Amino acid sequence: MRLLLVEDDRALAEGIRVALSAEGYTLDWLQDGVSALHALRSESFDLLLLDLGLPRLDGLPRLDGLTLLQTLRAEQYDLPVMILTARDDTAERIAGLDAGADDYLVKPFDVEEFKARVRALLRRSQGRAQPLLEHAGVSLDPATQQVSYQGQDIVVTPMEYQLLHQLMARPGKVVTRERLSRALYGWQDRVESNTLEVLIHNLRKKLSTELIRTVRGVGYVVELKP
Ligand code: CA
After folding, report:
1. How far, in Å, from the CA of 55 to the mean position of ligand 1?
2. What percent of the chain has pLDDT over 70?
3. Domain 2-125 has what CATH class?
4. N or C of the chain: less Cβ packing under 10 Å?
């Protein structure tokens, strides 16, 4: 799962990053509305965590969280959005919900409650948006994140699941290493160069060795007829 946090409070952002990476999520962080809108239009995220009071960065116009949310919904982006509000300001929360937020939290919040709400939002959106993916004896359920092979449940790590999901969602199409890397790690640059290979190796061992084909120098593909 790749989440985008738009928040100008550095300490809070760091706390959220630590909490969510412990859960196996990938978190990308931006501090202003304009950069966030650009990222959301050009890349794919599973959840947006949005502060409403956002600053203007040098050289960019100001775009507050509420306007960002209204813009996204007007452009038919339906990803789940949790707003983070600094004050216990009822009017602001109502405006956020009216603009299309799915949930909100008032800062400061309890980290366990935060994580539970993130899980709930992701569960709801995954269950709603995506049917079971089945291919060559492998079945992947986005609502429960369960994987089975020839009817047997297979235990996969969160990273292995994400990778398999990316490939199973596009059977017969080559998914580039860059795209996979983005989906798994976001923009962080400390990714070991062989990490994808290790995950692919594990999936081949747990499932079928025939399922995922390497396209040398490009990426990987789940074959239509393995
Ligand atoms: Ca703020």
Report:
1. 7
2. 94
3. alpha beta
4. C
